[in-house]
């Protein structure tokens, strides 16, 4: 029986040694895994900082583009208003010139005395 007990004890010692070796290896694996997790956290932090920087750069560029577009729209609006004023002035001048050179305008100028000559038409009685 003593040999049996010794064999069982030796067997248990081997199991305990194997469990200890496995425990040490598991600890090493966990240490490596934790180190990888820490490195990934650092990488994630760098990536999030880059994303935040890109987001702020994008917002700044978007605002600059928006201001530029608004400025261009105001300039175009001012130019259109100026062109519209000129167009209406030209239209008015052409209307007046068209009236003056038309037969009705010529008749008006001749009868109103605006030409400087005062011809009066008097019908004499016979």
Number of strands: 0
Largest sheet: none
Assess the beta-strand content as a share of residues.
under 5%
Secondary-structure element series: HH
How much helix, percentage-wise, in residues? over 70%
Q: Give the integer mean of the pLDDT values.
A: 89
Uncertain ranges:
none
Overall geometry comes to: rod-shaped
Span between termini? 178 Å
What oligomeric state is this? single chain
Query: Helical stretch count?
Result: 2
Overall structural class, as computed from helix and strand content, comes to mainly alpha
Please state the CA-atom Rg, rounded to the nearest Å: 52 Å
If you had to describe this structure to a student in words, what would you say it looks like?
With 126 residues, this protein is mostly helical. It has a domain at 2-76. It has two helices and no strands. The protein starts with a helix and ends in a 14-residue tail after the last helix. The mean pLDDT is 89.
